[in-house]
């Protein structure tokens, strides 16, 4: 499988759905794993936001970009951190995972959020770790560290 994936833009319906969930997450009334991610644009300096699913695994927190190298990923990489909002705001530093670190996180992410993200993965949630290793390069994954 190719390691480079084409970014999969959301449809109009998905954009509306994501905005609604982001709004409710920002107020603190969405499901507990959904947060509003805020990050400054790397070129514009404008504040952008999007709804994300926060994965907790082995006592650590992770963000996964199932659509690939999205704008929030590029902006977060440039900024070195993001703000997550669920009622209140918390700032986090990001550490990009190496491809060898991703399989366990990708598998857990797909297992936990399969109804929302299954279409972005060419493997099933119960695939062996080596199948996730083959696709790891196409999925940005970040470990969060509170600031």
Task: Write a structural description.
Helices cover 32% and strands 30% of the residues. With 147 residues, the protein is of the alpha+beta class. It has a single domain, classed as Pnp Oxidase, Chain A, CATH 2.30.110. Strands 1-2-3-6-5-4 form a six-stranded antiparallel barrel. It starts with 11 loop residues before the first helix and ends with a strand.
Order of helices and strands: HEEEHEEHHHE
Number of strands: 6
Oligomeric form: single chain
* Helix segment tally: 5
CATH topology annotation: Pnp Oxidase, Chain A
**Global geometry:** globular
CATH superfamily: Electron Transport, Fmn-binding Protein, Chain A
- SS-based class: alpha+beta
Please give the share of residues in helix: 25-40%
Second rung of CATH, namely the architecture: Roll
User: Any idea how many domains?
Assistant: 1
Approximately what portion of the residues adopt beta-strand conformation?
25-35%
- For the biggest β-sheet, the strand order reads 1-2-3-6-5-4
**Radius of gyration (Å):** 15 Å
What is the straight-line distance between the termini? 37 Å
Largest sheet, if any? 6 strands, antiparallel, barrel
Mean pLDDT: 92
**Which stretches are poorly predicted, pLDDT < 50 over at least 5 residues?**
none
CATH class, named: Mainly Beta
């Amino acid at each position: 499988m190719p390691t480079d994936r084409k970014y999969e833009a959301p449809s109009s319906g998905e954009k509306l759905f994501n905005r609604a969930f982001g709004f409710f997450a920002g107020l603190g009334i969405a499901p507990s794993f959904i947060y509003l991610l805020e990050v400054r644009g790397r070129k514009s300096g404008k504040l952008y936001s999007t709804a994300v699913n926060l994965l907790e695994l082995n006592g650590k927190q992770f963000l996964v970009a199932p659509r690939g190298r999205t704008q929030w990923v590029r902006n977060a990489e440039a900024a070195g951190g993001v703000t997550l909002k669920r009622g209140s705001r918390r700032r986090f530093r990001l550490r990009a995972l190496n491809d060898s670190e991703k399989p366990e996180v990708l598998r857990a992410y797909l297992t936990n959020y399969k109804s929302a993200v299954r279409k972005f993965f060419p493997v099933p949630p119960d695939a062996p770790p080596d199948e996730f290793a083959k696709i790891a390069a196409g999925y940005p994954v970040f470990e969060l560290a509170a600031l």
